[in-house]
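Workshop exercise sheet. Pairs work together: one partner reads the sequence aloud, the other fills in the structure field after running the prediction. Swap roles for the next sheet.
Pair: D.N. / O.F.
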Amino acid sequence: MLLRFVDLLVYEWIGLDPESRLGGTIHFFIYDTVKIFLLLAVMIFAIGVIRTWMPQKNLKKWMGSGGIWGNLVAALFGAITPFCSCSSIPIFISLLKAGVPLGVTFSFLVTSPIINEYLVILMIGEFGMPITVAYVCSGLFIGTASGAILGRMKLEHFLEQDIINSSSEGEDEGDYTLGSRLRFGYRESLSVIKQIWVWVLVGVAIGAGIHNYVPQESVHSLMDATGIFSVPIATVLGVPMYGSCAAIVPIAVVLFQKGIPLGTALAFMMAMAALSLPEAIMLRRVMGLGLIALYFAIATLAIIATGYLLNGLSQFL
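Structure field:
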């Protein structure tokens, strides 16, 4: 319904050519902006309401104890949430505000866009079950390992404390009524959106431009000609290629069908899903540039390693 409305707005009411890059860019910007803000409002509201039943100390104990166990739990939680890299950020913020350790929240932030129900369904249809299972396992490994590494580095001082420490005023646990729980969720949603809406607009605008003006044919040709270095090159090229799951899977399929090794194609897809420039811009409201760069570097290295591993295992899949 939303897509149909944006089609009418951009192509019929405004009158832009659906085949033009400008028309595609504006359509992408409007559609993704509305979609992300709706997701932000609904998900932050829902998480805020849930938090009234979930004391911060218990949530922190559940996801923060047992060493790498907390990272694995967060990665599994990310795997069952159907969000892109940008719309995962509000839950990432909510987890931080609830006292969940930084490294654990990163495990969620990495895994959520890499693995979701829609992407898995598309992959089963295009690649088959064995490759999809290998992809899901590699995504869980990347999220768990990346979060565990970042968590051991004690980087909490890079966080922007004003947004992490801000919270909606509410009653103590046990004093909530249904109405007060809903009001808490509403205030939480409004508070976070007020603090990041500019970053969302800037990020989506950049993503829309990249999506419609970066020639994918050139990317395919470059990966095809780089041999053993195709995995890191595919990963680095995937970062600016912002797109939805519906666009990511067909691109990986085309690469694979054209003879690009399986791990290289999937590394490109992982980078597109988990590491995007719009995501980095939105994260700037939450953390310093040094932590963003380190997060991207560790996740990139994990994707590259997984790409080589999948290339080695591809003959058995």
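Discussion prompt: DSSP finds 16 helices and no strands in the chain. What would you look at next?
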